[in-house]
Amino acid sequence: MDTATRIDIDSLRINGDRLWASLMELAKIGATPKGGVCRLTLTDLDKQGRDLVIGWAKDAGLTITIDKIGNGFMRRAGRNNALAPIITGSHIDTQPTGGKFDGNYGVLAGIEVVRTLNDHGIETEAPIEVAFWTNEEGSRFVPVMMGSGVFAKAFTLEHAYAATDTEGKTVKDELARIGYIGEQEPGDHPIGAYFETHIEQGPVLEDNDKTIGVVQGVLGIRWFDCTVTGMEAHAGPTPMALRKDALQVATHLMQDVVASALRHPPHGRGTVGMVQVFPNSRNVIPGRVKFSIDLRNATDALVDEMAGEVKACAARLSAQTGLAIHIELVSSYSAIGFHPDCVDAVARAAARLGYSNMHAVSGAGHDAVYMAQLAPSGMIFIPCKDGISHNEIEDAKPEHITAGCNVLLHAMLERAGV
Amino acid sequence: MDTATRIDIDSLRINGDRLWASLMELAKIGATPKGGVCRLTLTDLDKQGRDLVIGWAKDAGLTITIDKIGNGFMRRAGRNNALAPIITGSHIDTQPTGGKFDGNYGVLAGIEVVRTLNDHGIETEAPIEVAFWTNEEGSRFVPVMMGSGVFAKAFTLEHAYAATDTEGKTVKDELARIGYIGEQEPGDHPIGAYFETHIEQGPVLEDNDKTIGVVQGVLGIRWFDCTVTGMEAHAGPTPMALRKDALQVATHLMQDVVASALRHPPHGRGTVGMVQVFPNSRNVIPGRVKFSIDLRNATDALVDEMAGEVKACAARLSAQTGLAIHIELVSSYSAIGFHPDCVDAVARAAARLGYSNMHAVSGAGHDAVYMAQLAPSGMIFIPCKDGISHNEIEDAKPEHITAGCNVLLHAMLERAGV
After folding, report:
1. d(CA B383, CA B211)
2. What total of structural domains would you count in chain A?
3. Quick check: A297 contacting B, CB < 8 Å?
4. Looking at the structure, do residues A239 and A285 belong to the same domain, yes or no?
5. CB contact under 8 A, A362 and B202
6. Is the CB of B203 less than 8 angstroms away from the CB of A233?
7. Given pLDDT bands bounded at 50, 70 and 90, which one contains residue A2?
8. Complex ipTM, two decimals?
9. What was the pLDDT predicted at B189?
10. In this model, does residue B173 exceed pLDDT 80?
């Protein structure tokens, strides 16, 4: 690469208006009255969304491969097509009350990178691909991150195919119905490096007034179900001393879930999101309370330490009160540190482009978590309004959308070689 | 009354086997597989229960009056029928998963008193009546204690008639359908004194190993709905410091509800029985939590003091956290002290009969609460197994059933005069 070319590359910018227009166009499919999007995976609307994106990819000269779980790879050839492609992607399925940006931004940012390279006739050394992963959201079919999970062999294709929605429809039948069962075996697809651009889905960038989050990794997660068993009794005739109030005991443990996170800063997170009280009647002392515990931290050791503390608190409370407390592990996701080469590529691109930036961690799962098991991977976060996501009012600023895509462009070019 | 007669009266006892047999016979109507009874008010089963009891009353020579809300009065004439009758009663409707004794015992104990007087040819000075009140339980139609409430003019007949069940059927239509709209205006019925025999529905008598509870009064009740409003957010990407977790704030207030009861012994009671978390999702920080508060104590001043403390705690929590806390009064029932003459009549009868006994308070509402507004009233409690009621496993010992009825007999005779 001579000096003239390098200067051209350094000054290269994506077309923010075009990217924004594509986001708004895709958001029409499944648009909700409150400004959000409901485009559940493997529905007719999902098919329309996939078809639209693939149409854009074809217009941009990309070649399309669909694998057996419906993941799509849209490829721009490089100079040396024996090299593994540098891939970016995300998902275009949404939550039932989802927004315009979650996932969709990551896919369309990839399309915009390709369009920009086309505009300037830039050829990369390695091929570049834009991927969309099937059923990241998991709101119609579990598990979440299904397409990337099958790709990474976290679970089998058959397991994913057999998943049913609330009407009993299977993933396999619905994939076939919308015409998105491809030929390729999931995972039979080399990856040179993987980048994913995403709204932060949290308030940290906004709170710190930064444009770009250089994502270091994804927090480890432990999900538990906790059940406290007391004895239901009539609220009137039962004196305080003779009660076995399951809710009162539960409140202390719920508080310790938060306390354990506060004891392990800066990334410790503890949440009780779901509570069921039995029999849930105004004048009956709760006989049983079931609630969820969600613990997260930057390393598995830290999150396991938090879990140990919460269990110790439960044991203390049980001994003090005589009420049984049962804690059961529901799911566990290991902490992921993204590859230094990819993290550094993102950091360098943000610095070179002059965007304010900071280290970030992802508290939520993304398809990039599975890709990190297969190849050097990294993520780019941009702020979203009030940190709100999975909500029709999810919003992001056009200048941030543009900035994140410019960082993606330069990080990919660094890895792909020009 | 000469000495010989007095000795006869003092040694008079009800027939416990006959009372038990009647309880078991009535419990067949609406019997559930687990040994309970489901005989909701104004259903076909309720009609069958009413018909059975009235049949027994007619066999015992009683005359029947039904009022416009379906309350029944079964009268045994006295020597002086210008005197207001001494009435005992309760209800024969049950909870959906009710037991054999709640309410039913109070009515059939009255029938057994009459049968015993008949057996021995004893004539009372004042007439004696046995009442059954419509819809005490309130589980099909609200408000609870409907028949006695209309009788005491706590609300109007029209209000009660208009109440609908979940299928939209009205009290008036259902009363007419089962043939229990009578001629008498509710309340147009004199009461000399009122006694109600009931299982305790709490664990205090059993815990103290006493046979008879001499009920001093009924606790005042305040019901509130409390709503804590925070901001829902994704449990992963939202650091602890930037959260507005409605559940965590709510847990502190839930604990203060219990603490306020403990600060006001011996009769202070505080219960959070019902909790709804929004959106109630494992990985979403709760944005809103709604819960019930049930406060009770022996005087209105005490229960209002407890309510003031809980509200002050809510204001403190709201100031500390910035989260809005809204507390709304849903229902209020004044504390009732039963009439000393009736309380003493119960205490004297228990002592004379040699039953272990103690002062008791009723934490739950009963038809006697409304009667206490109209005439000297009192209640007799007997233990129930583990204090459990409103449950199919509700149980009481035959010897306690017998003892409570003997106390009723002697308390009524003291008030009616022999």
Report:
1. 6
2. 2
3. no
4. yes
5. no
6. yes
7. very low
8. 0.86
9. 96
10. yes
